Amino acid sequence: MHITKKERDYIVRIGQRGDKFPFKLSELAKSLGVSEPSTFEMIQRLKKVGLAETKGGMVILTDDGHKFYREIVMAHRTLETLLFNFGIDLDLACEECSKIDYLVDREVIMKLLMKLNAPEFCPHGRLIKMI
Questions:
Q1: How far is CA 90 from CA 69, 93, 131, in A?
Q2: Fold adopted by 5-62
Q3: Which DSSP letter does residue 127 get?
Q4: What is the 3-state secondary structure (H, E, C) of 37-65?
Q5: pLDDT (tens place) for every residue of the chain, 131 residues total
Q6: Apex CA 51: angle with CA 19 and CA 17, to 5°?
Q7: Do 67-115 and 5-62 fall under one CATH topology?
Q8: What is the domain partition of the chain in residue ranges?
Q9: What CA–CA distance (Å, rounded) separates 71 from 77?
Q10: Fewest C-beta in 10 Å: which of 29, 59, 84, 99?
Q11: Phi and psi of 33, rounded to 5°?
Q12: Distance of alpha carbon 85 from alpha carbon 78, whole angstroms
């Protein structure tokens, strides 16, 4: 499935918060620095493709949304590790990875992980889960 950068940003923000403390639409909009109507429209797009849903006024990821979120996180942390190992400043590596982590094919990420000797953690110390 192909998504846009904006869709990626919503999926990541919702995924970071988790289902235990889901966002209200207004909270999600504020956390992303966008308007509530824009957030409503984006959630409708994510619902249409089966990545998000609303329950009791709260926005959560579906099972497919969670899977997609985990793939983005794995890709981000793998790419971040690669860039950092090549001498790129950690903050810059993180910022650059956020621009492309959702675009890189899972098979490519898995090959990169193997070439990096399957690191357990990214340079930030966060777990790289192979899924």
A1: 22, 5, 24
A2: Arc Repressor Mutant, subunit A (1.10.10)
A3: B
A4: HHHHHHHHHHHHCCCEEEECCEEEECHHH
A5: 789 999 999 999 999 998 889 999 999 999 999 999 999 999 999 999 999 999 988 999 999 999 999 999 999 999 999 999 999 999 999 999 999 999 999 999 999 999 999 999 999 999 998 77
A6: 25
A7: yes
A8: 5-62, 67-115
A9: 10
A10: 99
A11: 70, 35
A12: 11
CATH fold of 67-115: Arc Repressor Mutant, subunit A (1.10.10)
Distance CA 113, CA 75 (A): 9
Q: Residue 2 corresponds to which tokens in the numbers above?
A: 């192909």
Tokens representing 56 are 């009791």
Which of 32, 49, 95, 104 has its CA nearest to residue 74? 104
Largest separation between any pair of C-alpha atoms in the chain? 46
Q: What are 53's strand-pairing partners? A: 60
Q: What is the pTM of this model?
A: 0.92
